[in-house]
């Protein structure tokens, strides 16, 4: 499944469908339709996305060969650079840089571009659209749409700049994060976080949580599919449906409590005393140092260039 | 409410990490200090549950669906510290595993959803369910309100963080560098969505799960409700426990309120009453003679700490806000400790007298 | 070949009059006494819920009896004595437990880390651990799984990984809870062969099972639990399987079913 060197074919579902979960993760989205079907669909999407990620991370490419610690440090550095950039040119150069890195890392570039630009218009484009209007961002009106109390109202130069800048910044930031996650197997990412000083207890919890995510995902999907099978037609959104979701999460919690008890026994049986040691065998090579140095130089150049382009 | 990278200035993100780090460190220490090693698997499984809860679609009465975060529920079942860790890990999944951004903004997201949300929810739950038995319907109401209050407090924080961006960070032409909306726009927009839809989803989920556990799995519910009688019969048997003032909780609550209010300082026109500098006094009040004492001390303060904290760069405002909040929190904590000690002394005296008379 | 007939084999694990109840209400063990000798292969037989899994957990120092005593390798095993680091390390490295639910036992993000968990906790160096992990994966024929995530494994593969996690610590005593449950016939056969080889290597093996078909191959001695959570019989597999009334009484065979074997 993760044979190195294999060219990665992008499965159709990844490009067509929405991202796993609601990509923002948290805001309550209003969507019409059956809550059962959507929950079941969300579950399988998570699993598929992770499997796809493992495939790409196993391919051989530039970023796959770099030590994850160097990649994480580089990512943060570039994210800060993107955050500090004022000029659209700087952001455009950075986006080109991410595309180059993606191509060098055997990532399907078409997929990479779609992955980012499916997210950005939906969650950023629409959101910043009203900000181009003078009612939100006052400034020099470049396109008059209406008059209010005798003053021209419409799109302002400042508003347009601001909106374009936010959209580009979000696109660059997400491209950078996707580069890291798609070229690093999850296990090595965890080890790198540990190497960068994240407390052991968190690494242990994150690692186990990842492992049980899939087990519990199966439980949830079964539960909802069983209900779906017994619910002909469109599921109702009534009191009973809400009680079912409550019972579903409740049963999930009960099952989790039982599971954590068993896991606890399994850990203690093998000598766990509250402080885990992990197997880490990473050594910084010259290539990693060179990569880190290149990122530092690139970030410095970008920031310098940005100051030249937009003096402040 | 999950803020992706690019909407917040790096400075704001840094403040997010500064606020989140001590809370997470405390949570990790508390988890480790407990003798039982079982906390590690419990938290791991809960983090997975928290991630999955974001996947559950909750049917809302108006015929649509929304999904919840589950922070309130976990705080009720296993305490706010556990919820802080579980939601933090779930957010780490979102940011790293699924590459949906939020790496620089991770600290801020942790503050909103893993700290403010469970703690506000827990506070609301404790407040409403105080004195209720474990199977009382009032606990269901309390769980609904906990979820509702928690997610709305969290949304308010996110709105505040986004809303201060255009005022603090803009270029020479006045175009905002990051999120372009002002507080006057972010707060209503976020609150409308959360007061009506997301708040309901979180509330319904918390209440429905609590109701289910009351019927089907009381032992799970009992884990974080030590000493709460199961039903009315057990309640009469149990003596009413004395209400206790917890200085730590009060101090954290005060700090949370201050954090939420901080951005308002930027909106407030003019200076605060009684904080005028000597120069202002002279010009606005027409005082020709500044009191000599004030003149002497004002120099000292100006050079010492944060000179003119509103006129400098955004950094100074943020740093001074953090320092101020921490200082206030420490003072409240200290005062609370003192008060508790005094109350305890007074409370033990009469009891000793009663025992002596037996 | 048969290890049970050694009359003066050294007692390793000794239980006296164990009593244990879940949540202080549901009894699981009601006065159980048992001695496990060095080098023997012992099967704990009984219907579901008879207490055999609980007994294994007591033997592994995971739950502690409400009353009665348990000594392992001459040392009393209690919650207090296991608090001692040396005692805990010694005991944990000498007794290994293969759980019924491999999902609970395989908790790390990758197979390699999973197998390395035990030796690392018990203080082996990273280099030595890595070597042992490679050896044990090769021995069980699952080297190609090393970098897989557990959720990508089949049930049989997970069981093999679970067994690898225990064998890597080279324990003297191996406890198996329902080892053959939910395995396909080929993996069952593989497991039986493994147990036979472990027995030949001098390991002490204790199984909890209700699988009577494989009994004669995996055990030299059996103890039978009643549904009242007590031990009601003891003997060689041949003797136990011949006693049909006993097996019906403890609900291991259905009265209407034909004879065993």
UniProtKB/TrEMBL annotation, chain A:
Zinc is among the record's keywords: no
Localization terms from the record: Cell membrane
Transmembrane segments: 72-97, 117-146, 166-189, 201-220, 286-305
Origin superkingdom: Bacteria
Main location per the UniProt record: membrane
Bilayer topology annotation: Multi-pass membrane protein
Alphabetically ordered keywords of this record: Cell membrane, Membrane, Transmembrane, Transmembrane helix
Pfam family, one: CbiQ
InterPro entries hit by this protein: ABC/ECF_trnsptr_transmembrane, ECF_CbiQ, ECF_transporter_component
Protein name: Cobalt ECF transporter T component CbiQ
Encoding gene per record: cbiQ_2
TrEMBL record, chain B:
Superkingdom classification of source: Bacteria
InterPro entries registered for this protein in UniProt: CbiM/NikMN
Identification of the protein by name: Cobalt transporter CbiM
Broad class of the protein's primary localization: membrane
Record's keyword terms, sorted: Cell membrane, Membrane, Transmembrane, Transmembrane helix, Transport
Pfam families (alphabetical): CbiM
Membrane protein topology class: Multi-pass membrane protein
Keyword Lipoprotein appears in the UniProt entry: no
Subcellular location as annotated: Cell membrane
Segments passing through the bilayer: 6-28, 40-60, 66-91, 103-125, 191-213, 249-268, 315-343
Keyword Cell membrane assigned: yes
Species the sequence originates in: Pseudonocardia ailaonensis
Gene: cbiM
Automatic annotation (TrEMBL), chain C:
Record PROSITE patterns: ABC_TRANSPORTER_1 (PS00211), ABC_TRANSPORTER_2 (PS50893)
Matching SMART domains: AAA (SM00382)
InterPro entries (UniProt xref): AAA+_ATPase, ABC_transporter-like_ATP-bd, ABC_transporter-like_CS, ABC_transpr_CbiO/EcfA_su, ECF_ABC_transporter_ATP-bd, P-loop_NTPase
Coiled coil: none
Pfam families xrefs: ABC_tran
One MF term in the entry's GO annotations: ATP binding
Occurrences of domain ABC transporter (ranges): 13-253
Keyword annotations of the record: ATP-binding, Nucleotide-binding, Transport
PANTHER family associated with the record: ENERGY-COUPLING FACTOR TRANSPORTER ATP-BINDING PROTEIN ECFA1, HEAVY METAL TRANSPORTER
Family: Belongs to the ABC transporter superfamily.
UniProt-recorded name of the protein: ABC transporter ATP-binding protein
Organism: Pseudonocardia ailaonensis
Taxonomic placement: Bacteria, Bacillati, Actinomycetota, Actinomycetes, Pseudonocardiales
């Amino acid at each position: 499944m993760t044979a190195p060197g294999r060219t990665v074919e992008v499965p159709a579902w990844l490009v067509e469908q929405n991202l796993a979960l609601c990509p923002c993760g948290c805001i309550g989205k209003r969507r019409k339709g059956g809550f059962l079907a959507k929950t079941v669909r969300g579950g399988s999407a998570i699993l598929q996305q992770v499997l796809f990620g493992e495939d790409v991370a196993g391919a051989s490419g530039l970023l796959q060969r770099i030590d994850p610690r160097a990649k994480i440090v580089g990512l943060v550095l570039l994210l800060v650079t993107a955050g500090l950039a004022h000029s659209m040119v700087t952001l455009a150069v950075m986006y080109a840089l991410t595309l180059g890195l993606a191509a060098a890392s055997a990532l399907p570039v078409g997929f990479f571009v779609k992955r980012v630009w499916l997210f950005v218009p939906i969650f950023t484009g629409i959101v910043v659209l009203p900000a181009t209007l003078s009612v939100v961002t006052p400034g020099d009106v470049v396109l008059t749409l209406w008059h209010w109390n005798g003053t021209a109202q419409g799109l302002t130069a400042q508003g347009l700049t601001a909106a374009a800048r936010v959209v580009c910044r979000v696109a660059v930031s997400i491209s950078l994060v996707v580069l890291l996650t798609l070229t690093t197997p999850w296990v090595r990412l965890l080890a790198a976080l540990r190497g960068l000083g994240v407390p052991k207890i968190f690494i242990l919890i994150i690692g186990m949580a990842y492992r049980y995510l899939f087990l519990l995902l199966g439980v949830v999907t079964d539960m909802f599919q069983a209900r779906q099978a017994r619910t002909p037609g469109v599921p109702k959104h009534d009191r009973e449906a809400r009680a079912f979701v409550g019972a579903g999460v409740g049963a999930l919690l009960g099952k989790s409590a039982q599971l954590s008890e068993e896991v606890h026994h399994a850990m203690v049986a093998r000598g766990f005393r509250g402080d885990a040691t992990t197997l880490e065998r990473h050594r910084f090579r010259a290539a990693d140092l060179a990569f880190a140095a290149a990122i530092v130089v690139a970030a410095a150049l970008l920031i310098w260039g940005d100051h030249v382009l937009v003096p402040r | 409410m999950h803020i992706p990278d690019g909407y917040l200035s790096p400075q704001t993100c840094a403040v997010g990490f500064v606020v989140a780090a001590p809370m997470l460190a405390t949570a990790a220490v508390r988890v480790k200090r407990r003798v039982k090693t079982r906390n590690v698997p419990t938290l791991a499984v809960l983090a997975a549950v928290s991630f999955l809860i974001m996947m559950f679609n909750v049917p809302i009465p108006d015929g649509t669906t929304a999904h919840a975060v589950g922070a309130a529920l976990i705080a009720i079942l296993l305490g706010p510290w556990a919820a802080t860790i579980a939601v933090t890990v779930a957010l780490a999944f979102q940011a790293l595993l699924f590459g949906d951004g939020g790496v620089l903004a991770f600290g801020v997201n942790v503050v909103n959803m893993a700290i403010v949300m469970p703690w506000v929810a827990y506070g609301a739950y404790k407040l409403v369910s105080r004195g209720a038995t474990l199977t009382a319907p009032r606990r269901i109401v309390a769980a609904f309100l906990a979820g509702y209050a928690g997610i709305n407090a969290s949304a308010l924080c996110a709105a505040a963080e986004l809303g201060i961006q255009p005022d603090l960070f803009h270029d020479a032409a006045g175009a905002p560098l990051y999120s372009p909306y002002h507080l006057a726009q972010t707060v209503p927009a976020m609150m409308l969505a959360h007061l009506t839809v997301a708040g309901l989803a979180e509330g319904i989920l918390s209440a429905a799960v609590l109701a289910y556990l009351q019927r089907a799995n009381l032992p799970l519910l009992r884990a974080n409700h030590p000493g709460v009688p199961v039903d009315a019969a057990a309640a009469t048997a149990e003596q009413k426990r004395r209400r206790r003032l917890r200085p730590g909780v009060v101090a954290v609550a005060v700090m949370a309120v201050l954090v939420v209010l901080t951005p308002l300082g930027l909106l407030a026109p003019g200076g605060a009453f009684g904080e005028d500098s000597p120069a202002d006094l002279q010009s606005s009040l027409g005082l020709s003679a500044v009191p000599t004492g004030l003149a002497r001390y004002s120099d000292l303060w100006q050079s010492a700490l944060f000179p003119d904290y509103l006129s400098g760069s955004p950094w100074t405002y943020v740093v001074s806000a953090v320092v101020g909040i921490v200082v206030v929190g420490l003072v409240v904590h200290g005062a609370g400790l003192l008060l508790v000690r005094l109350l305890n002394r007074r409370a033990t005296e009469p009891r000793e007298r009663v025992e002596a008379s037996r | 070949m048969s290890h049970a007939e050694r009359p003066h084999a050294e007692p390793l694990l000794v239980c006296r009059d164990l009593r244990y109840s879940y949540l202080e209400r549901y009894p699981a063990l009601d006065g159980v006494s048992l001695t496990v000798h060095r080098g023997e292969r012992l099967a704990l037989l009984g219907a579901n819920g008879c207490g055999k899994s609980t007994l294994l957990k007591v033997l592994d120092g995971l739950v502690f009896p409400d009353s009665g005593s348990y000594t392992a390798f001459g040392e009393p095993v209690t919650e207090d004595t296991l608090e001692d680091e040396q005692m805990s390390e010694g005991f944990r490295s000498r007794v290994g437990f293969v759980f019924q639910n491999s999902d609970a036992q395989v908790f790390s993000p990758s197979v390699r880390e999973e197998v390395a968990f035990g030796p690392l906790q018990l203080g082996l160096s990273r280099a030595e651990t890595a070597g042992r992990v490679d050896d044990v994966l090769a021995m069980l024929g699952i080297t190609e799984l090393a970098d897989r995530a557990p959720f990508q494994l089949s049930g049989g593969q997970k069981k093999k990984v679970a067994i690898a996690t225990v064998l890597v610590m080279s324990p003297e005593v191996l406890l198996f809870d329902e080892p053959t449950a939910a395995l396909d016939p080929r993996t069952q056969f593989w497991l039986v062969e493994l147990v036979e080889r472990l027995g030949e290597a001098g390991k002490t093996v204790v199984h909890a099972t209700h699988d009577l078909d494989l009994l004669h191959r995996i055990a030299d001695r059996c103890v039978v639990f009643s549904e009242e959570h007590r031990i009601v019989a003891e003997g060689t597999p041949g003797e136990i399987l011949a006693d049909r009334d006993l097996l019906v009484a403890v609900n291991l065979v259905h009265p209407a079913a034909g004879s065993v074997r």
